[in-house]
Description:
The protein is an alpha+beta fold. It has seven helices and 16 strands. The chain folds into three domains: about 5-60; about 70-160, CATH 2.40.50.140; about 170-309, CATH 2.40.50. The protein is about 25% helix and about 35% strand. Strands 7, 8, 11, 12, 13, 14, 15 and 16 form an eight-stranded mixed sheet that branches. Bound molecules: zinc ion. This is OB-fold tRNA/helicase-type nucleic acid binding-protein. GO terms for molecular function: DNA binding; helicase activity. InterPro entries: NA-bd_OB-fold, SOSS-B.
Amino acid sequence: MSDVRQHADDIHDQFSDHIDVSVDDVEERLTTLVDEYKVPIDEARRSVTNHYLEEAGLEREDISQGGSEEVNVEDIDKPEQWIDLTAKVIELWDPRSDSVAQVGLLGDPTGTIKFTKWAKSDLPSLEEGAVYDLRNVVTDEYQGRYSVKLNSTTVIEELDEDIEVGDDTSEIEGALVDMQSGSGLIKRCPKEDCTRVLQNGRCNEHGEVEGEFDLRIKAVVDDGIDAHEVIFDKEATEDLTGLSLEEAKDMAMDALDTTIVADEIHEDIVGTYYRIEGPTFGRYVLADDVEELDGPADAEQLLIRARSM
Ligand SMILES: [Zn+2]
């Protein structure tokens, strides 16, 4: 392929989703500039790109840089890459800004990743549980975690199929250095499909409700390199602490105070070394498989370091 033809091909890829243009058209424009007007190829390419931007009514940042590539979630390891993804919407979250139309979690067989869809990009709504072919999305990175952004050039096509979402399993070996608030004996909203944790007897969505007791731990585990947030559900908490939900309720009843449960658990687990395996959801690892370790010789050091964070 000639140089000009290659450039024409690239430009065509950038615009083929937006306007009806052939590679030949693009090549002809480039050739005219290069051959007749002796414009350097880079400048010719810029000029032709601008021409099509105008024709398509797009801004430069709206078009992908040299065609996007179909990738799997696990391959995303750089920001500002234009990619295509086939993924399922695992969950939608409440956008915290008016500039965001939708935000949530996407997944494919290799893992999960957060996505953001801008309000101004005017794209169709994604549905929870549906599978989409997403072309022209841009990767982003914040504090070492990757996400993808849907923009005005993104092409969304719903697929009539289901895909198995990979667990993105993590294995962490380290000291459990902290337990976060919201751990221990908690109450959840009893409304169907809600299960939000109540704050002072109130659900964020449903107001004052008669909560249902549950056990959970939100822990921070330091593997010596990173601090990981790990969630233990009721079963995992019971396994970890040997304390059942019933025993925890009795304990709280006797003390007339639910925080005694968290205090007890804190005493029991903070400073202990574990190997934890489980799926990753957003920034959390769900503890599926937990094994207590003897701990390395420098466990004390880890704790000192963790306290200084
Ligand atoms: Zn609720």
